[in-house]
Write a structure and sequence with these properties.
The complex is a heterodimer.
Chain A lengths: L4 E13 L6 H9 L5 E14 L4 E5 L6 H8 L7 E6 L3 E4 L12 H11 L4 H15 L14 H12 L6 E5 L7 H16 L3 E5 L3 H7 L2 E6 L2 E7 H23 L1
Parallel strand pairs in A: 3-7, 3-8, 5-6, 6-7
Antiparallel strand pairs in A: 1-2, 1-4, 8-9
Helix pairs in contact in A: 3-4, 4-5
Chain B lengths: L2 H10 L1 H15 L8 H22 L6 H23 L1 H4 L1 H4 L7 H28 L12 H24 L3 H14 L14 H9 L1 H15 L5 H25 L3 H4 L1
Helix pairs in contact in B: 2-7, 3-4, 3-7, 4-7, 4-8, 4-9, 4-11, 7-8, 8-11, 8-12, 11-12
Classes of the chains: A alpha/beta, B mainly alpha.
Chain lengths: 255, 262
């Protein structure tokens, strides 16, 4: 079987100007002074990952390890500097909270805007409108501008939109952490439903319990490298042990 | 990317284009009492002020001055609005571009279309003034879409060029305000062609100011009821094509780097 996501030896490079130059004057001043130095920064180095259709991968690691960059690379937002990414299906991106919402538009208008961003037609969205609203439990707030929504309400709407159609690949980036317990339960149920229907999942979370529950495999990123990948239980345990050591060390230093 | 693939991507996102345009139009006058009526009222009121100022204070000897003025004015507003919107289109769509994979030109494209829709509203104002001033409607009036089409292509190209440049150098949006002011005065909007004289200035404006070509063609159709000279039409199409190629080329080359700068 062909992998649905094939990340082949990928390195991503950012040009971090030591100081950001985004004005013409500054550019020329620095050019004259020979100060236009770009520092290369590699948020991900030599990453290999083969994801088969129907797999569920958790991505774990400390802040700044490259988790979100990894998701951005898979969704095609970031182009690899070296290596190759091949994707064999439709992606419903759920990269971050409120992506694609316009604060001034009402929830109703945002549903259509967001649907269009995901590539659905207006007619299609009309047909699924009630379903989305019902899952997000926002019936009474349809004509309120989204900027007045709480982050939990936005997350509910975002999740409801992204999972309305069965995507080939579902990407979830810590979005569940803002919802309340009841909604988290509901989302997990929906994700499981999609998984049993053959959807592939990429799931970033700091909650190892959630990763263990939802994912069969896990990828542990540390310092921009893939530290470990495989069975989610084993990877999570190893990560947890490592975290415990770090915290213990820290406490020893401060204590 | 080959052409067939591009067309396929575009057709997939044409609903997004619609949604983005309708968002711009909905939000523009939201919470104002008169709403969409402002799109027609605005150019009308500007025209009234300018007509009062320029026919009393400066006394240009132009027959049917209100229509002369307004016909130039609405095209130039389209130009300044489209280019101003387009400059911020990529940086403004940043939050989306960073999170979802989308063809990036959609943002610039939607801004130019929004401005085009506003132009059509202003066009209603022009028709109103033509009726009030008893301007003769000729069959040539029906040919005005030719100019709009030329200009749309021009604005799209210019907008894409500016949008990608503004991602790397934000100051372009401030410089652009100055450029537009200069452009306003070097286009015969409120003064007659003859003011330019016959020297170098006239040569420059008539050949190197695309807006001159568009506005003159538009007035020929709407106000004078004649066919514009072939040279003028050719010039307009030439500039439009030139900017389209420039804009698309530079945008295509730069688009993968956007994400690192927004």
């Amino acid at each position: 079987m062909e992998p649905i996501i094939n990340v082949d030896n990928v390195t991503i490079q950012f040009n971090l100007a030591t100081q950001r130059v985004d004005s013409l004057k500054e550019y020329f001043v620095r050019l004259l002074k020979h100060q236009l130095m770009f520092q290369s920064f590699f948020p991900l180095v030599d990453i290999n990952l083969k994801v088969m259709p129907g797999d569920s991968w958790g991505i774990i690691g400390v802040n700044g390890a490259g988790k979100s960059t990894f998701l951005k690379m898979v969704s095609g937002i970031l182009k690899p500097y070296k290596g190759k990414v091949t994707i064999g299906g439709t992606i419903a991106p759920l990269i971050e909270l409120g992506a694609g919402f316009d604060g001034d538009l009402t929830a109703r208008e945002n549903i259509f805007l967001n649907g269009a961003i995901l590539g659905h037609s207006h007619k299609f969205m009309e047909a699924h409108f009630d379903e989305i609203v019902e899952f997000a439990e926002l019936k009474d707030f349809l004509d309120v501008p989204i900027k007045n929504f709480s982050s939990g309400m936005q997350a509910r709407l975002g999740f409801s939109l992204a999972t309305m159609v069965k995507p080939d690949i579902l990407i979830v980036d810590e979005i569940l952490s803002v919802g309340d317990m009841a909604f988290q339960k509901k989302c997990e149920l929906r994700i499981n439903e999609l998984l049993s229907g053959g959807t592939t999942l990429l799931f970033v979370s700091h909650s190892l319990d959630q990763v263990r529950r939802l994912c069969k495999q896990a990828l542990w990123l540390e310092d921009h490298h893939a530290k470990m990948q495989g069975n989610s239980k084993e990877v999570c345990d190893a990560y947890e042990a490592r975290e415990d050591v770090c915290i213990a060390k820290e406490q020893a230093v401060h204590g | 990317m080959n052409i067939k693939e591009s067309i396929h991507t575009f057709s997939r996102y044409k609903d997004l284009l619609k949604e983005l345009v309708s968002r711009d139009i909905k939000l523009k006058y939201r919470r104002s009492f008169l709403g969409y009526l402002w799109s027609v009222l605005n150019p009308l009121m500007v025209m009234l002020v300018m007509t009062a100022v320029f026919s009393r204070l400066f006394r240009f000897d132009i027959p049917n001055y209100p229509v002369y003025l307004l016909s130039g004015q609405i095209l130039f507003s389209f130009h300044s609005e489209a280019s101003n919107f387009a400059i911020g289109s990529i940086t403004g769509g940043g939050s989306l571009i960073k999170k979802v994979y989308l063809p990036k030109y959609i943002f610039t494209f939607s801004k130019v279309i929004s401005s085009l829709v506003n132009l059509l509203f202003s066009f209603v104002a022009l028709l109103l003034v033509m009726v009030i001033t008893r301007t003769k409607f000729t069959p040539y009036c029906l040919l005005f879409p030719i100019v709009i089409a030329e200009m749309f292509v021009f604005e799209l190209g210019l907008g894409m060029f500016l949008a990608q440049a503004a991602v790397f150098f934000r100051d372009i949006q401030y410089i652009w305000g100055v450029v537009l002011t200069l452009w306003t005065y070097s286009t015969p909007l409120f003064y007659p062609d003859s003011t330019l004289g016959t020297g170098k200035l006239a040569f420059l404006v008539k050949n190197f100011n695309p807006l001159y070509s568009y506005i003159t063609q538009f007035r020929d159709f709407m106000l004078y009821g004649v066919m514009p000279s072939g040279r003028l039409v050719l010039l307009g199409c030439g500039w439009a094509l030139f900017f389209l190629i420039l804009g698309m080329g530079s945008f295509y080359k730069a688009q993968d780097k956007f994400i690192l700068y927004i």
